[in-house]
Amino acid sequence: MSNKAPAAISDQYELWIDGEERSAGTDDRFTVVDPATEDTVADVGMASGDDVDRAVSVARDAFESWRSRPPKERVQVLTAIAAAIREQSEYLATVETMENGKPISSSRSQVERAARHFEYYAGIADKIQGESIPLSDGYVDYTIREPLGVTAHIVPWNVPIYLFARSVAPALAAGNAAVVKPAEQTPIGALELARVATEAGLPDGLLNVVPGFGAEAGAALTGHPHVNGITFTGSGPTGTAVAQSAVENVTETHLELGGKSPNVVFPDAEWEAALDGTITAIMTNAGQVCSAGSRLLVHEDIHDEFLDDLVDRAAALELGPGIDDYDMGPLVSADHLEKVQNYIDIGREEVGDPVIGGGRLDRDGYFVEPTIFDGVSHDTRIAQEEIFGPVLTVSTFADEDEAVELADATDYGLVAGIYTSDVGRAHRFARDVDAGQVYINEYYAGGNETPFGGYKQSGIGRENGVQAIDNYTQIKNVCANI
Ligand code: NAD
Q1: What pLDDT digit, counting tens, does each position of 115-133 carry?
Q2: Which residues pair with 356 in a beta bridge?
Q3: What residues flank ligand 1, with Cβ below 6 Å?
């Protein structure tokens, strides 16, 4: 651990406003629980509507000076933040594992992704430029890309540190000031990232964190009349409510929502890669990933053999506390455990017992076994609804057309994976499927540099890559009669 990081996670956190820890205006507090032990990690001040108002007003003031600073200063500050995250990476990874439960090696990767994100957008901050547009003689026309102003960031609990960085880094790079509402289950990583960014030289007021619950702090932020852009990452129903309230203020809104992503395996697939990819797709982070490959579509000719091998892989996964780096950690909370167990019960009613798993570990913590349901019809609830746990449904298909048809047979359109050694087939599938991302022969391919977002009910807008800058800028056209 770096000597710059605190020695241990504090048991008390407040809000982060104007470059420092500030108490909430009320005495209301909430607790963060370690999902591997069910012990309380810390208690945290709860932001009220007044606190959110204060954060937005501070951000507005900070924005006015940030927007007029030379872009190269943004490059320097974001570069310094990336370096500071790396310096404190072991500490931040520990925070992520304590709050969320994921294996520490996975937390380390996510913290590195967060650092890389600031580094990547540091490289873009001084290259955000307009264009000139040819018109008839007598006119000069050009565009200017300007920041939106104050941007609101609603972050979920499943990958809290990286998802914070994912929208905040491009927003700051484009010259905005940010207010973040982290998920109530995982606010500490956000508060620690704000501290790290401030210590690295980010001017006060540009990054504020208002922990609390969605219905209060979240709604106050997304409905605030002085918020100029919203990035919401979370579930479809909440995202829809946020978008509805944003319309009242005509606030630009981007939604990164859920998925029910298919993973399609053809007989000519490289066998081990397809097995690895299928397990990684659904068991990473105990299935609590928006882009989790939660539906396996396997060709009917290889179904039996592939399923046998898949069950062996699932059985080999060891579950235990993320801090000890087991293969799979717990689910994030007691509420979420109940939701996932409820879906497993629904699966039992719809298709019978799972071929493996289905139970909870007999120990403290919210551990659910890797669970696979076979023979799942596409019109069942377990094949249609996002379970967000280590629960895989398996169905078969006969040919390419049916593979695409089944892949598209949900309201979601986040990711689609395919395993085949036929290059033409892989690209035909990529062309035909309705998904924002297509992974060929490796799940979770791509990275900070590749645009990420949803088709259909999986969202509006794109994060990552140069495309994310569009979310945080607006275009001014200037036309002159010369
Ligand atoms: P959620 O919708 O319950 O909560 C997300 C965030 O919204 C939390 O911070 C919550 O406090 C806040 N919130 C709740 N009500 C609100 C309101 N009325 N106004 C404003 N904010 C409000 O989702 P979750 O359970 O925390 O996260 C899991 C979901 O997130 C899954 O559906 C998953 O697929 C999705 N997700 C999507 C992506 C993506 O990139 N597409 C990434 C990660 C997670």
Answers
A1: 999 999 999 999 999 999 9
A2: 372
A3: 154-158, 163, 181, 183-184, 213-215, 218-219, 222, 233-235, 238, 241-242, 256-259, 290, 386, 388, 454, 459
